[in-house]
Amino acid sequence: MVRSLCAQPLETFRSYRRIAQEVPIAPSALSTYMSGRVVPPPDVVTRLWAITVECGGYAPEGVASLDSALEIWREASVSRQGLGEDAVPSQIARFQAARRRQSGMTPPPRPAEASAPTPIADDAIRHLKAGRESDALSLLWHIGQTHTPGEIRDVVAAYSVARETEAADAVLAAASGRRTEDILRITASLLEAKRYSDATALVDAAVQRIG
Predict the structure, then answer these.
(1) Where is this region: Disordered (predicted)?
(2) Is the pTM of this model over 0.85?
(3) How far is CA 73 from CA 44, 66, 123, 138, in A?
């Protein structure tokens, strides 16, 4: 799909390096996305779509709309992670079970002003409110799997303040499947923000996954 999205901009800019600058991403990242070795984040797909339409004035072949492009991205992302239709909901359920186990053992999260969520986090909530649960879960899973500890902490805090607890749980459920080093960094970030129940539930879910 990325190769298709780059076809029209290439006629305008004459180089992949210039396309990468327009996104903006590193040329090496664009090359990796075009090879299919890595699925790009949805904001890159959205930006490439906009550049394609700006350059050609029409949709690229095989990708009729931005929604179509994001649906292709969602399917590729789920496939690359090896997640079937029921895998994400089951892992979220496992995390929520971990949260229930810890609910009587830790104080509630400290009420505080939350940092603004990332654009992807905003998009996920819009999908949820529009009833597009699969699209929302794909974005939430992407956040938990790829964002930095600080970004995850801020997104979870923002979702909690907005009473979007299921979205926060989905992000943390995804984070519980990361490498041990990443989980420890995310846990430390949550503890620093005094989000004790989130931190303990994350560790519990990760231990249950490993065990």
Answers:
(1) 97-117
(2) no
(3) 10, 10, 14, 9
